Amino acid sequence: MSIMRNKWTILLINVLIVTLLFTVIAPVYDLFHYINSLFYIAYFYLFVGVLLWVVRGGFFDAITYSFRRFTNRVSKQKDYMDDWKTKPLPSQTIESRWMRFFMFNGGMLMLGLLGLLALYYNV
Length: 123
Hints:
Blueprint: H1 2-5, H2 7-25, H3 31-56, H4 61-74, H5 90-93, H6 96-122
């Protein structure tokens, strides 16, 4: 588990994954296809990070609370042991370290992507 705590090791593993993806999928080994492979991995991390950020910010809390309340009122089989008011909301279940993990890796890979794009268009 200590390898997961070192963000730079995970970033290096991600670069190795990008390189492996490039060597397996790319029809031609050039900078253009490497940038495409880096794009796939970087924006996956950014997408998950932004999604976690939105959920952690409490955007879906009111919707979730309303659905739980509606289900409790409408259901014919009442479960008196299930207290829908005290269940944790989505923003309470997501830890901030996962959000920071995805945002850091996605941001660093995106910086590398922008650097390679600058190199590609200047050459």
